[in-house]
Amino acid sequence: MPKMVVEMSALEVRRLGHGTVKKTGRKSKRGQPTTALHAVGGVSGLYLCCRPPAALQATGARSWILRTTVGSRRVDLGLGGFPDVTLAQARERAREIKERIRCDGYDPIAAKRATKSALIAEQAKQRTFEQIAKQYYEKKCLEYSGRDPHKQARRLKQHLDDYCIPALGQIIMGELSPRHVVQALGPIWVKKTPTAERVRATIENVCEIVRNDGVLTNGLNPARWKGNLEHFLADPKTIHSEEHQPTVGYEALPRFWNLLIDRDTIPARALEFQILTAARPGEARFAEWQEIDLKEKVWTVPGWKVKGRKDKRKDHKVPLTARALEILRSIPRDGGSYVSVR
Description:
Family: Belongs to the 'phage' integrase family.
Low-confidence stretches: none
Keywords: DNA integration, DNA recombination, DNA-binding
Distance between the termini: 93 Å
Shape: elongated
CATH architecture of the largest domain: Orthogonal Bundle
Order of helices and strands: HEEEEEEHHHHHHHHHHEEEH
Number of domains: 3
Helix content: 40-55%
InterPro entries: DNA_brk_join_enz, Integrase-like_cat_sf, Integrase_DNA-bd_sf, Integrase_DNA_bind_dom, Integrase_recombinase_N, Phage_int_M, Phage_Integrase
Largest sheet: 4 strands, antiparallel
Mean pLDDT: 86
CATH class of the largest domain: Mainly Alpha
Strand order of the largest sheet: 3-4-5-6
CATH superfamily of the largest domain: Tyrosine recombinase, N-terminal domain
Organism: Hydrocarboniclastica marina
Strand content: 5-15%
Radius of gyration: 34 Å
GO molecular function, one term: DNA binding
Oligomer: single chain
Structural class: alpha+beta
């Protein structure tokens, strides 16, 4: 048999307050103020929760709680604070909720989550491209690695400031369409195709932040190329051909090498060291003494410095030839961290 609770009057409820600890325990002492739940009657499971005053407060907070069962779960539902919500109002709300749970299978917690999610999505729709772009920029600055992360951040900021924000900055994300993106890219698509492609990718990445929240129209990223912008803009491959830097053929390498080692200059020694280690220009330029082990004849390049490496935690070990070691040993150690190849 459930315990019968006497139905309290409004005056009796107004006199209710927090409780005190009855027995000293590991985390509390006897007589210490503590939260108390008072069953007020009228509706099964309706309580007034009374909390002791917080620091610098004269009175504690009091609020209504409905303890009931939803499906197979026992839940506590907040019905508002007291006295803003009166005793009569709390009882009425509790009766309505219990009736909806019993008759309609209503889940108040799921309904609250759905309402909150809808509100967040609606608020996100009202955010501008500039606001989301700022969020994307801050995220990428934390992720950039490699030999010059500041350079990567500067390039991204330049793309945003020069091309993205002026054209798209004040557009509400929920209203952003492929037409807006085409208008932003149009002036540079033919004249500066490589730059335009990178700007398009940046816009696409910014839009991806909110796409999964249902903010974008039909869930389509307006800057996506395939099946979208390819119908409005010319194929970059047809309007721009990449010009590769001239290379030295293997048959000419011996003569080139003899000319190189005859030059007594810093650039010549740097290029010689780069060739001997098959390193990228930036890797050789930003090599540090702490990465060089002359005794073991190994140069350990940190994974975050290696371009294209998926696992940035895995270092890249480069064996050092006798000539590479000779070049390194010829360099004065001036106390700096970087190797100045001479």
